[in-house]
Amino acid sequence: MKSYKFKVNENGYTVNIKSQEDNVINLEVNGTSFDVIMKKEIKQSKTPTLVRSASKQPAVPLKVNPKSTTTKIVAPIPGVILALKVNVGDTIKENDLLLVLEAMKMENNIVAEKSGVITAIKVEVGQQVLQDAVMLELE
């Protein structure tokens, strides 16, 4: 098959590779035949494997502090305000519909997490909001 010439410690060697099957190579060194078993080669993938590390910040719960006097309703995701279902001064109960937020072509109902009175509306219909933007305030 192939022939190589090596020099080790001032000694010359002619190596002829006769055959190869899997990891066994039959070769001839200066006229003497040898069967050599090659170690398995670890093949590396051409495509790197991407590993995402876990977030260092714990997830922030969306629940409000029940002891707080003022509650801010924030956008859970970026989107567009489709409809406002309350006005300033309205008294609401827990799970009442406050507004509809369109995000990723889906309508998301934003509901009250606790009872109270609407003190401020910070958005209007058609307005784009970013995640965590304050939309409503209630007491």
TrEMBL record:
Keywords: Biotin. PROSITE patterns: BIOTIN (PS00188), BIOTINYL_LIPOYL (PS50968). Pfam families: Biotin_lipoyl. Residues 63-139 form the Lipoyl-binding domain. This is Acetyl-CoA carboxylase biotin carboxyl carrier protein subunit. The lineage of its organism: Bacteria, Pseudomonadati, Bacteroidota, Flavobacteriia, Flavobacteriales.
